[in-house]
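can u pls check wat happens w/ pyridoxal-5'-phosphate
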Amino acid sequence: MGRIAYVNGRYVHGRDATVNVEDRGYQFADGVYEVCEIRDGALIDMTRHLDRLDRSLRELEIRWPMDRDALQIVLGEVARRNRVHDGLVYVQVTRGVARRDHVFPSADTQPAVVVTAKSTDPQVFANKAKEGVAVITVPENRWDRVDIKSIGLLPNVLARQKAKEAGAAEAWFVDRDGMVTEGGATNAWIVTPDGKLVTRPAETGILRGITRTVALEVAEAHDLQIEERAFTPDEAKSAREAFMTSATSMVMPIVRIDGVSIGNGHPGITTMALRDSFYDKAEKTLL
Ligand code: PLP
């Protein structure tokens, strides 16, 4: 986290950025979040992130904590106050503070909102992308509403930790039908031996990643053949290329899955083309 956070209406120093112990986010993971990239002094795809926040809130019947324009200003302000030129801004909205009880609190309970921002070094990601990263596969064990960007991320936390312990950057969940759903915090893609771009449809089993949506637009602009369908770990292991997408890592080449080398073991040409032209299609809102 940077030095300044926005917590329920106030900009506060990190040490004062605290939430109530009866915040329903803390007790029940009863909340949603978004992570938006900041690149070269601009918020990337903020409109889409706020659209998805709106959808997540509606699905869980949580009210907006403030109006959308105001939140947009807060996102920019937190980034500016932390002097983030490249990095991430995080927004979390929970159902608010109420005496602990599973059922929703009274309708006048004010949702709680927290916004933080931190700097990241784009060169670190660029260097990683030059090498490519490894992923492992793990059994899918999440609930079936992963389309909601909920703060309940325990399976994702455990999967990512397992990946780290295996020397990998990400874990791909594999559902009961033996198909890859997505990564712990990324969407999953492959390029088939005949050059088709494949990623799972966003209708089931995955979060509709904003980076995924933009990458599809970039792929269309490149006249790539796109198949939105599920794929197995075996198909991925014999793919020409594999990669993952997220606001944090943009388009990140994958060169190993469960220890099996992908393609020639180096980042693929299609992956790198998508990575290189990603910002041509992304929306930029200057800070
Ligand atoms: N899938 C999951 C489970 C995620 O947590 C994320 C991002 O955090 C993504 C996919 C990628 O989404 P986006 O491209 O909007 O960052």
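Residues 253 and 272 are 7 Å apart (CA to CA).
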